[in-house]
Fold these 4 entries.
Entry 1:
Amino acid sequence: NLAGDINDDNIVNITDISNILKNYGGTTASADANQDGTVNISDISVVLANYGKTYTPPPTGSPIPSGISGT
């Protein structure tokens, strides 16, 4: 959905960075933002690149594409 949204709450924020730091150096897939197999500085970089962005999923059953907003 949204790159860097580690906890799938549709916003990239400090919670996502916190989840990466909790799993830093490991292989937890849910904290591996760039999906390279290791939770590391590259994953933090993905979060920072998208920090503050939000994702609005389309209404259920709607063919309208969803949007990503933020800075």
Entry 2:
Amino acid sequence: AELLEWKKQTGLLTIKPANGAEGRLTIVKGQIVHGETKRGQKGLEAALGLLRVTAGRFVFEPGHAPPTRSI
């Protein structure tokens, strides 16, 4: 997430942890504006949990507009 902030990227970051629920962070100009997990968490709670993930699969898709702002 720090690299995306530094580069001022906009897009959708999907995080599939080695252990835990998959989730997504919507990023606009390097800032996280929405987070959600498959467990139903949304907003800041989801984003904080996803930012703690250190192992798994991380896929960034540039250019996605945020569906909603929860952060």
Entry 3:
Amino acid sequence: GAIPELVGDMAGVLVPADDPAALAGELKRLLTDAGDFARLKRGAMAVRLQTRDWTRAAREMDDALWRLAGA
């Protein structure tokens, strides 16, 4: 999937899908490392502001189709 490209290392931590120990380790680290937690929180907010929601995507598609129809 595109999660690594979308989120990046400034907004999230990826662990192997079948590795509960890795997940537990990362969760423990984030709960005990306030600085890294804050960095990831800021990164996640930045990604959210740059990511289209469905309403915006639909509006942009509608605008583009109207422009094409008028061309």
Entry 4:
Amino acid sequence: ELTHDRKDIGGMINTFIHEIVHLLLEHYNVELKLKDEEKVCEILGTGFSDLLSQNPKVIKVINSVYNNNKK
């Protein structure tokens, strides 16, 4: 069984969001210098992971909106 402390989970969420931002930039053909793309991904990854870890109710709101619109 794998166990992760809160810091590990925060790091995984940060990396996950960071990589999603790379995918979105590529999908929407956003052309940035590599240095600038990394900075954008770093800021958004860190910003969103901090937001989610410091405000756990945000996930509940997102799930609620998703589940209500799924019907």
